[in-house]
Design a protein that fits this description.
There is one protein chain. With 192 residues, this protein is α/β, with parallel strands linked by helices. It has two domains: 102 residues, Response regulator (Rossmann fold); 61 residues, Arc Repressor Mutant, subunit A. The protein is 62% helix and 16% strand. It has seven helices and five strands; from the N terminus they run E-H-E-H-E-H-E-H-E-H-H-H. Strands 2-1-3-4-5 form a five-stranded parallel sheet, with helices on both faces. Strand 4, helix 4 and strand 5 form a beta-alpha-beta unit. The mean pLDDT is 87.
Length: 192
Amino acid sequence: MLSVMLVNDGSGKAAALKEALAAAGVRVVAEVAANLQLADMLAAARHDVVLIDSDAPSRDMLEQVCVMGARHGQPVVMFTDDSRRDTIRAALSAGVAAYVVGSVEAARIQPLLEVAIERHQLEQTRRSELASAQQQLAERKVIEKAKGLLMQMKGLDEQTAYKQLRERAMQQQKRLADVAQEIISLAEWLQG
């Protein structure tokens, strides 16, 4: 059984949404008001999805969604009456996994939440892969710079400079990028 934390902005529709969730077999483990401590409240409740009921999500609400996603990594589903394109774009950019305009039949809630969970997991995987690729690229740049410094300072060819970097990393039992950064830092200190 899916469990949700219901964030209510005080619009008065939360009671109807809670009934629809119960009819769909979804358990509401906590209901909280939308406020600036929203991200902190998430840590206290155990839930699968954060469900936000908001007539028109404010900029503050969307910032809280960003903070929630960064800290807790749970999928966020927003039920709203606001169908403006700029609001939808802002919500999705903030990390909302599903943005639902209008009411939803109870029979559709469970699949909707499951799709939001899957979409959120895919997004998390993509972000992780992107971060890893960016880290690898940054490390590659550091290695290339250190290799260039060795070539310049010691008069080595590219292959020999790389071989020396690798050998030093193995001798010190360090990652190649860490040894390269040490060489760059030392060269900057010596030139400074």
